[in-house]
Automatic annotation (TrEMBL):
<protein>
    <submittedName>
        <fullName>Uncharacterized protein</fullName>
    </submittedName>
</protein>
Length: 69
């Protein structure tokens, strides 16, 4: 399950990054830079953290399934 969730997360970040690269070509003011710094530059660390949480939840769900069998 975590592979699917992680893959979905990776795909979403990839899509967002590509979309941002296209948007950035036309949106070049100070607000654009602020947006990139405030949100997009934090994505790698947040994505890594989310992956860790997904893995932890996956392990808990596996244990719960095993305990119920």
């Amino acid at each position: 399950m975590s592979r699917v969730s992680s893959a979905s997360l990776d795909e979403a970040v990839k899509h967002l990054t590509l979309s941002w690269q296209r948007t950035k070509q036309d949106w070049t003011d100070v607000k654009s830079l602020q947006f990139e710094q405030q949100f997009l530059e934090k994505l790698p660390a947040l994505t890594h953290q989310a992956r860790n949480y997904i893995d932890e939840i996956d392990a808990l769900l596996k244990k719960a399934r095993q305990d119920c069998e």
